[in-house]
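Need ABC transporter permease's 3D structure for a figure. Predict it.
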Amino acid sequence: MAAIIRRDSLAISRAVVFAMVLREMQVRFSSRRLGGVWTLLEPILHLVLMMVVYAYVRGKSLPGMELPVFLLFGVLPFLTFKNISLNMMEALEANRALFAYRQIQVIDAWAARFVVHFCISASVLLLVGLVMAFWGGYDLSIHAPLEWGLTWLVGLALAFGLGMIYCALAEVMPESKSIIRLAYFPLYLLSGAIFPVWHLPAQVLDWMALNPWLHVIELLRIDASATYPRIAQVNLVYPSVWACATLFIGLGLYRARRLHMMAA
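Structure prediction for ABC transporter permease:
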């Protein structure tokens, strides 16, 4: 008679998240024609369009960093953080039927969506970076790799925390989804993803620095290039505090509302 293998809760959670990651990848890449190709092409086309527009309006050079590299380290990271948060917000509707299984929790759906969209974004960043480095001849070496990686971790933690809060808010007020999506357009403009902020007046920068994404985007460029201009308003402490606060609030909301989320 075969022995029954009992797994601890951590092993069960790993297995559940892995299975849900496979499911999310299958749904995303097979839900429409050329789904896998379009998933990779969509942010690339967005980046190319911004390069064309920016080069036409301002020219092809920027102090401290070449224009394509400037947009690569601004547009793609912001799209990564945005997509993680907004797709976590939709995790309840997409996985409602799975919550009937006792082993599957809402936080597993969040983790699966986080992993999927991070892997997609990392693949796009790597693919575009290789093309720009080998065929375009751009210098993509990272000046401060440890600081650059730490900035990415802070941005991802902030995106995950916001995703939990958005999901909890959308469960109570479904109409808030539209407002949250619309809010990312001004955030996109105010985060410095598509234009350099260091030439703006100090009074304007003081207000823009209230946006934690501005700090993350600018630090990714500063850590990538030793010659990129640094502004006094930017630091890693501010977005780190935001990340810790959103994670704390998000986990608190999950603790208080998890049964309602699974039963709604």
